[in-house]
């Protein structure tokens, strides 16, 4: 049991390392063991604390180091390297504080995760308990968030015995029950660590105006962003160091370097060039200050699927900005859900952004097993189209299906229905890309196999449908019809013994010279200009219209 908990913790550490390498390679991560026999830390100031990895950017070497601790050989290696000794969480926290202090960079956020299966790590030693509580309080005052990733043990894990005074308070209401339940499954532990390690950064913080003098502070969050393969990094071929590109603007006549203040923008209106300063351009773009302004409420049935013209974002209250925002936001969310309506707003998300109509669709909280939040409470912001964005289509007319054919297709659809979850399908292209990179970085013989989860399971589909497919074909297609055979190409009817080739367009030399003098040579099409070049033996290296005109002018002027 103890070995399984250790393996789960190391698997989570490895998962954090690999995810940081992919998504946030500039984040700094450290791995510290406490309760060890051997000591290894800066200046060896603390006994029974072993700093396995210093606070630094994760890399392939660190993933290999964690792999070396897994399995039976890993357990033996850990016993020889670190061993098992007395436990002092206060010294471990103090050591972590020194690791933070040794970093000269400015850190946006600091988080410390404690993995343990012991609800009383000091065995009731009040002195060590008091030292740990004091050091945890000091860390929290410096902005360090302490989280407990406690594992299931026989008899249960009682947080109230000791760790309730160590961990940081929940960052929002969705985490109230998260810290009380221990994890007994690897996937649950991974989900909890993933939810903690990802910093919830707001795309923008705005005021939601409900009326004159009534403002709610809200944050806009992106709950789903298209995952893409990272762009290629240009390296200097001799040193493999990344190169930086700079763009400079020069005067076309003098060749002098232009400063940003010397550059203006212009637009031609009515054959007149209108020159504007940058400040004037910004003033033209600005409609109003950023924010959300409530216009009214509409029934949910008025919101159609084709109104979604861009990815939706998520709205959540910011209590730190304006006191009382969470309470009023919660009341608005409850009433909109109760009456099944959405709020219609005018939205300007950032400075100099054009205004958009947005529908605030209420979303209630959903909590799964282990009190892990599945769906957060808040509003989904659906950006609505303008009248200019809507197109009127003229679809082609086709014969309608009979009621028998429709009923048969309904049977097929009902047989193939399943519960869809977007988080159950990974992008196979991106997964294979990172598997290949991981294999190269870790010197693996071959990359891990990637399962294409979006590949249709043909055998299961055929088993479910049975004879329905053939019955549908018999109802829709004619007898002996094979959709895989290409239809025979239609033969063109001969009129007058065969199709005549398109006659070449020839132009007299006098007419061409007249066009050169009048400056109307540019009105001829490219095929006519090409034929004229052949006619007068003009050799051209290009096929652009201006090149053909220049060649003809040079030939006819000589």
UniProtKB/TrEMBL annotation:
Gene3D superfamilies the record matches: 1.10.1600.10, 2.40.290.10, Ku70, bridge and pillars, SAP domain, von Willebrand factor, type A domain
Signal peptide: none
Domain of life: Eukaryota
Species this chain originates from: Anabas testudineus
Catalytic activity, EC: 3.6.4.12
Name under which the protein is recorded: DNA helicase
Family: Belongs to the ku70 family.
Top EC category: hydrolase
């Amino acid at each position: 049991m103890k070995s399984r908990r250790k393996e789960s913790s190391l698997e989570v550490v490895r998962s954090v390392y690999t995810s940081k390498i992919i998504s946030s390679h500039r984040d700094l991560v450290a791995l510290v063991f406490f309760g060890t026999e051997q000591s290894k830390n800066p200046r060896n100031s603390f006994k029974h604390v072993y700093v396995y990895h210093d606070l630094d950017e994760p890399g392939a070497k660190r993933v290999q180091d964690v792999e070396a601790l897994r399995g039976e050989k890993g357990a033996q290696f850990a016993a020889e390297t670190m061993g098992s000794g007395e436990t002092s969480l206060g010294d471990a926290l103090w050591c972590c504080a020194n690791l933070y202090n040794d970093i000269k960079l400015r850190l946006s956020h600091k988080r410390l995760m404690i993995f343990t299966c012991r609800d009383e790590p000091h065995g009731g030693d009040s002195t060590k308990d008091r030292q740990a509580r004091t050091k945890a309080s000091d860390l929290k005052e410096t902005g360090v968030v302490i989280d407990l990733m406690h594992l299931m043990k026989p008899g249960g894990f009682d947080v109230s015995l000791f760790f309730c005074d160590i961990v940081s308070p929940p960052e929002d209401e969705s985490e109230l029950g998260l810290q009380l339940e221990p994890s007994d499954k690897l996937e649950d532990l991974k989900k909890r660590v993933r939810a903690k390690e990802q910093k919830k950064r707001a795309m923008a913080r705005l005021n939601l105006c409900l009326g004159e003098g009534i403002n709610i502070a809200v944050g806009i969050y992106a709950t789903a962003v298209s995952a893409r393969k990272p762009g290629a990094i240009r390296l200097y071929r001799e040193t493999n160091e990344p190169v930086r590109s700079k763009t400079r603007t020069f005067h076309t006549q003098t060749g002098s370097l232009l400063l940003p203040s010397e550059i203006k923008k212009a637009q031609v209106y009515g054959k007149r060039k209108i020159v504007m300063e940058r400040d004037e351009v910004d003033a033209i773009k600005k409609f109003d200050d950023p924010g959300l302004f409530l216009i009214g409420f509409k029934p949910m049935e008025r919101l159609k699927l084709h109104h979604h013209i861009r990815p939706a974002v998520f709205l959540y209250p910011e209590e730190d900005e304006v006191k009382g925002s969470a309470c009023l936001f919660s009341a608005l969310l409850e009433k909109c859900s109760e009456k099944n309506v959405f709020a219609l707003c005018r939205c300007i998300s950032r400075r100099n952004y054009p205004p958009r109509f947005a529908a605030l669709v209420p979303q209630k909280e959903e909590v799964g097993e282990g009190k892990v939040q599945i769906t957060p409470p808040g509003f989904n912001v659906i950006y609505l189209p303008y009248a200019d964005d809507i197109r009127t289509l003229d679809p082609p007319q086709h014969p309608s299906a009979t009621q028998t054919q429709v009923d048969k297709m309904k049977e097929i659809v009902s047989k193939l229905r399943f519960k869809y979850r977007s988080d159950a399908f990974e992008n196979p292209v991106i997964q294979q890309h990172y598997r290949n990179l991981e294999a190269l970085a870790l010197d693996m013989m071959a990359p891990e196999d990637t399962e294409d989860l979006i590949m249709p399971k043909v055998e299961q589909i055929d088993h479910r449908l049975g004879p329905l497919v053939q019955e549908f074909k018999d109802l829709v297609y004619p007898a002996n019809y094979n959709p895989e055979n290409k239809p025979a190409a239609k033969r063109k009817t001969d009129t007058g013994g065969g199709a005549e080739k398109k006659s070449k367009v020839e132009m007299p030399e006098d007419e061409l010279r007249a066009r050169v003098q009048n400056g109307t040579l540019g009105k001829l099409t490219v095929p006519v200009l090409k034929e004229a070049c052949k006619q007068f033996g003009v050799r051209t290296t290009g096929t652009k219209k201006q090149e053909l005109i220049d060649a003809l002018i040079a030939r006819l002027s000589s």
